[in-house]
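U., I forgot to send this yesterday:
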Amino acid sequence: MIDRAPSQRITPVILCGGEGTRLSPLSSAERPKYLLKGWSSRTILQETILRVSDSAIYKEPILFTSTRTETIVRTDAAKAAGAGFTLIAEPAPRSTCPPLITAAILASKEESDALLLALPSDHYIEDLGHFTGAVIKAAGQTGQGKIALFGVTPKSAETGYGYIECANEGKGGEVYKVISFHEKPSRERAEAYLKSGNYLINSGIALFKASTLLAYAKKFLPKLLERVEESIWDVDTPSLQKGYEACQKISFDHAVLEGPIEKVCVELQTGWSDLGTIESIRQAALKYQSERGSLFNAIRSGLPLTPFKS
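Result:
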């Protein structure tokens, strides 16, 4: 149970991207992973939307997807959010930084100091209460131009994730000061990270003020900011014009988190998986509870996966 809400409500920004190729044949460009019934009778996208649906804490979410999947994502999201969401289709996939800048522009029109929670559409998080508590804790750390990240303690030398190097204080679920952000390491470096105990896996979730991202973009990404601003059509019912294709294709991690911006990190002390590979899905399915008829349950029970193939 969450006994308090943040001082201002947060706008979730759910990124429904990807080419759907890494998990073939379970996913495809036309039917990405987040549309699978991962561990319940709901799709992974629906679970993500419900995770940030407490109206005392969150505003209506903004979703980004491709023009190819716009219709199916709108239909799927409506089953969890009703009409309470904004869906923006990118004319061309531009990784994660351009859509987050777009969201920051739109949110700041409604509230000058809007708080944004950027999160992937396709992750598993075991404990909703803990996750919500971590978000509330992080919300209190976003002043003075800071970005709050969410890290996961590595259990082995994982090479498939970015890492957050943290200061040695703040153990036990407190807020860490981030020393640096590192992209996916070699095996040797990942083993060194694990041994040091000062590195957390980057969950891909971030919380920040729209004004923080826009100020950073104005200083360090002026061309990208200009392109995005020119592409937004109708702030009230937003869409992106074809000129968006001219935006640089760059990740939020590379463009912002690796740059000169102050970061803090809250540890997610609950089960988490990005479900990024067939093996990580198998491991999650064997570890976490699931409902009959879901992908996790089929894997755990040794059932054919034919119903889940695209």
